[in-house]
């Protein structure tokens, strides 16, 4: 778990570490392009954020056509292929946030997804986005308000306002996150670490744990 000062220090140190790192590997990219944001009036409500823009495919026949994720493979019949409507790329804007949970005292991942006009996309489009690793959604129950696992006491994904911005978002429930991170940290030799290095490594381990469900390498 992290206190508010520890969370602030971990985030700013991680941003500094990766902002000028020349490495094109996917693992490093997941930790780049984040920025630190403070509340406009009140201290102690800072958070990390970044914006990811990607394209998805949409048929042009009518506005009622469903969007087709560019990562989803389709295998149409020959007749269907001949009659298919050409598709055009549509821009999707993914806002990502890392916020400290006041209840669980761990970082929590918040996000929102919009089209190029700023209109929020529905849960169906969110589930088809490349943000989620598809195996994570297997066996889950989807409602208009979130995603749950039948055996879990907490939802996997829920709706909620951003704690600092107050804007509608979705978030990955932080229950159990601290235990996962501490398990990773227990396997690491921390001899000679400074407090700043420990905090950065803790946050890196958090990204590793949450990254088992989410794709930060967009």
From TrEMBL:
* Example of a GO cellular component annotation carried by this entry: cytosol
Its keywords, alphabetically, are: Autophagy, Protein transport, Transferase, Transport, Ubl conjugation pathway
Q: Which Gene3D superfamilies match?
A: 3.30.1460.50
Residues annotated as coiled-coil are none
Q: Is Hydrolase a UniProt keyword of this protein?
A: no
Any one Gene Ontology molecular-function term assigned to this protein's record: Atg12 conjugating enzyme activity
One of the GO BP terms on file: protein modification by small protein conjugation
Q: Name one Pfam family in it.
A: Autophagy_act_C
Q: Which family does it belong to?
A: Belongs to the ATG10 family.
This chain's protein is named Ubiquitin-like-conjugating enzyme ATG10
Species of origin: Collybia nuda
């Amino acid at each position: 778990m992290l206190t508010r000062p520890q969370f602030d220090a971990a985030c700013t140190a991680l941003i500094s570490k990766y902002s000028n790192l020349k490495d094109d590997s996917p693992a490093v990219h997941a930790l780049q392009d984040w920025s630190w944001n403070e509340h406009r009036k009140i201290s102690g409500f800072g958070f990390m954020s970044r914006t990811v823009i990607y394209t998805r495919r949409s048929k042009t026949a009518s506005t009622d056509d469903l969007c087709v994720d560019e990562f989803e493979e389709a295998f149409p019949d020959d007749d269907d292929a001949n009659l298919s409507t050409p598709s055009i790329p549509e821009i999707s804007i993914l806002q990502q946030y890392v916020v400290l949970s006041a209840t669980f005292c761990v970082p929590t991942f918040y996000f929102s997804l919009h089209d190029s006009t700023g209109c929020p996309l529905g849960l169906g489009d969110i589930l088809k986005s490349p943000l989620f690793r598809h195996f994570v959604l297997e066996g889950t129950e989807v409602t208009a308000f979130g995603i749950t696992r039948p055996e879990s006491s907490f939802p996997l994904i829920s709706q909620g306002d951003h704690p600092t911005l107050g804007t509608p978002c979705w978030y990955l429930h932080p229950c159990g996150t601290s235990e996962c991170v501490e398990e990773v940290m227990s396997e690491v030799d921390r001899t000679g670490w400074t407090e700043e290095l420990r905090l950065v490594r803790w946050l890196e381990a958090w990204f590793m744990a949450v990254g088992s469900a989410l794709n930060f390498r967009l």
